[in-house]
Design brief:
It comes from Paenibacillus xanthanilyticus. Residues 57-238 form the NodB homology domain. InterPro entries: Glyco_hydro/deAcase_b/a-brl (IPR011330), NODB_dom (IPR002509), Polysacc_deacetylase_ArnD (IPR050248), Spore_PdaA (IPR014235). 34% of the residues lie in helices and 16% in strands. The chain is built from eight helices and eleven strands. Helix 2 (72-82) packs parallel to helix 8. The protein is globular.
Length: 249
């Protein structure tokens, strides 16, 4: 089955056709795939990230942080205790609402990525507005933390187009998608740490880019065991800055 909403209706041949990121999940150790989604060549052409090196047992831990639900401090505590790097994709709301957590992310060696200022469907915006959405986050984080560089973007809602990828790449960003995910974002439908653990571990594969939402109490509870058991299987957690090989399949 495909994880994601699939292909949205076409809207012309000018690169504006919107896509909702989706992928065929990894099962029984097989690698995931985007070959049937209609956008693999587009991601490759723009240098977007789907997979790292599938010949290496490396994992990349990424969090989407649109707002705070009280569990990010716990997540940061676990990452610090385990010595695991991560990237947090944050919005303008998060920067304004949780400045101390953003400062802590940077101080503890994590990357802070761009999730846009207002979390819009960027395929509906002109290029200038896309760049503005991104620059507002970057500038606010720089002013708050001193972090001058922001190289990674996760498109809001997982919606993108050729034009959006091109405009954001022109603004200096690599779009980061994912190869491990499950429905974890609904705070009213949390199912327990074991469910989170099982959902992530069942999909682990070499070169995995793991998407977790930092609002999930399930994720916060499962994270220590996910890290320990992934390491026991021979995996190493790396920073996105260490991702040297991008693969598409």
């Amino acid at each position: 089955m495909t994880a994601g909403a699939g292909i949205a209706p076409a809207s012309g041949a000018d690169g504006s056709r919107p896509f909702h990121f989706g992928f065929k999940k990894s099962k029984n150790g097989e690698l995931p795939s985007i070959a049937q989604e209609g956008f693999m060549d587009m991601l490759k052409r723009h240098g977007s990230i789907f997979l790292g090196d599938t010949a290496s047992k490396e994992l990349y831990l990424t969090f989407d942080s649109g707002y705070e639900n009280g569990v990010t401090p716990q997540i940061l505590d676990v990452l610090k205790a385990k010595g695991v790097p991560a990237i947090f994709f944050i919005t303008g709301h998060y920067v304004k609402d949780q400045p101390e957590l953003v400062k802590r992310m940077v101080a503890e060696g994590h990357l802070v990525g761009n999730h846009s200022w207002s979390h819009p469907d960027m395929t509906t915006l002109p290029d200038a507005r896309i760049v503005s959405e991104l620059s507002q986050v970057k500038d606010a984080v720089a002013q708050l933390t001193g972090q001058q560089e922001m190289a990674y973007l996760r498109p809001p809602r997982g919606i993108f187009s050729d034009r959006v990828l091109g405009a954001s790449k022109g603004a200096g960003y690599t779009n980061v998608f994912w190869s491990v995910a499950y429905k974890d974002w609904d705070t009213k439908a949390q199912r327990g740490a074991k469910y989170a653990y099982d959902s992530v571990m069942a999909q682990l594969h070499p070169g995995a880019v793991i998407l977790l939402h930092s609002v999930s109490t399930d994720n916060a509870g499962a994270l220590p065991q996910i890290i320990d058991d992934a390491r026991a299987k021979g995996y190493t957690f790396k920073s996105l800055n260490e991702l040297k090989v991008k693969q598409y399949r």
